Amino acid sequence: MNTEDKQAIRDFKKAVNMTAKQLEKWLDTKESKEVGFKGDDGGSAESVGHKSGKRIVELLGKKQDDYTDDDISHARKVTGYVHRHLAQKPGGDITDTNWRYSLMNWGHDPKRKK
User: Fold this and answer.
1) pLDDT for 35
2) How far apart are CA 103 and CA 16, in angstroms?
3) Of 5, 12, 57, 112, which residue has the fewest beta carbons closer than 10 angstroms?
4) pLDDT of residue 64
5) Burial class (CB in 10 A: 0-12, 13-18, 19+), 55
6) For residue 106, what are the contacts with CB-CB under 8 A and spacing of at least 6?
């Protein structure tokens, strides 16, 4: 694994501040399932973030040396999403907002200190 890939994994683990167990529990909630982009038809499909959350749980359970190229690509995607979304923080109390819930689907709870 090259240096850039190792850095991508470190960045991912810094961006994701929820444990696999916390994320799994969150993904089972109604709030988690209701937020996020669900595709062009909008229907009852699973949101992109919710699917990503499931993948993040898998990645958190892997050793760095076991990451595939696809895993590293997803780790980079997660890091980018978290950073972009954090830059769009709304004013006021964020506790019960779709903004926070969406971030949590991607493994980052902005109210949690790591």
Assistant:
1) 84
2) 10
3) 112
4) 92
5) middle
6) 16, 49, 52, 53, 56, 78, 81, 82, 85
Question: Alpha carbon 78 to chain centroid distance?
Answer: 6
28-37's contacts with Cβ under 8 Å and 24+ in sequence apart are 31/101, 32/101, 32/104, 32/105, 34/101, 35/98, 35/101, 35/102, 35/105, 36/102, 36/105
Residue tagged 């919710």 (tokens): 50
Instruction: Count CB atoms within 10 A of the CB of residue 69.
Output: 9
Q: Does pTM surpass 0.70?
A: yes
89 Cα distance to chain centroid: 16
Q: Tell me the H-state helices in the chain.
A: 3-15, 20-27, 30-34, 48-60, 69-86, 98-105
Domain coordinates in residue numbering, the chain: 3-105
What's the confidence (pLDDT) of residue 44? 60
The two tokens of residue 87 are: 């830059």
Give the C-alpha separation, 3 to 53, whole Å: 25
